[in-house]
Design brief:
Length: about 260
Amino acid sequence: MLPPPAELPRTQIIERARHRYEDIHRLLEKRWTISAIARRLNLDRKTVRRFRDTDLDELPASARERRPNGVLEPFKAYLNARFTEAQGQVSGTRLFLEIQARGYRGSRQVVRKHFAALRAGTAEPVRADIPSPRKITSWIMRPRETLTESQDERLLQVRLACPDITRACVLARAFADMVRHQRGYLLLEWIRRAEQDAPKPMKGFAGFLRQDLDAVTAGLTLRWSSGVVEGHVNGVKTLKPAMYGRASFALLRTRILTQP
C-alpha cells in the first residue's frame, strides 16, 4: 500500500493561492472571460469564479475546509451502505480501516465527522446512492420474478422515496402485462387510471393512446402484427445505402425480390 501523500505546508498553500489570485485578477482587469481565463490557466471555471468572488485572506481556509470532503466523497456510498446494513451499530474506526484499504488517503477525523452526521440524520445524500433513471426504468419494466433480491430492494427504496415513481411503476407493470398477454380489453380502464392518477408524462402517453384507441386495442388483442412488414422495410433500408450511387434501381429491385 502506498503511503499517503504529504500535505503542503500552510505557507506554501497561501503563497500558491496568492499567485493564482493575482493571475486571475490581472486577466479579469483585461476583461478576459471566465472561460478564457480557465483555458489560459488550466483551471476549472468554478475555481476561477471562486477566486474572483472571494477575498485572498479567505481562500486558503476555504480550500482547506473543502479538501477533506473531496477526499471522502468517493467512499461515502460505501460508508452509507455499511452504516445502513449494520443499523448504525458499527465502529467508525473499523470502517476507516476498510476504506483505507480501498484507497482512502484522508484523516480518521473526517470519517468520524461523517458518521456523526449519519447518526444525527443530517448527512447529505450521496449521488452514487441514487440509481440512474435508466436503471430504475429497467427494474420497473422487467417481470418482478426476474429481479435479484438486491434489485427488488433498491426499487422498493426508490418507490418509498418518490410517490410518483410508485404510481408510474404500478401503471407501467399493468401495461406491460397487457402487452405480454394480449389483454386489450383492459386498455380503456388503464387509460382512465393513468389520466386520473399518473405522473404528467404518463398522462400524456395515455392521451395519445385514447386518440387511436381502436388501433391500439386491436394491437393488444389480435395475434397479427406489422412485424414482418417492418422486417422487410429494414432490409430495404440496409440494402439501399450500400448501393447508393453505385447501381441502378433495376439491380436494387432484383436484390430485394431475390432475397431468401
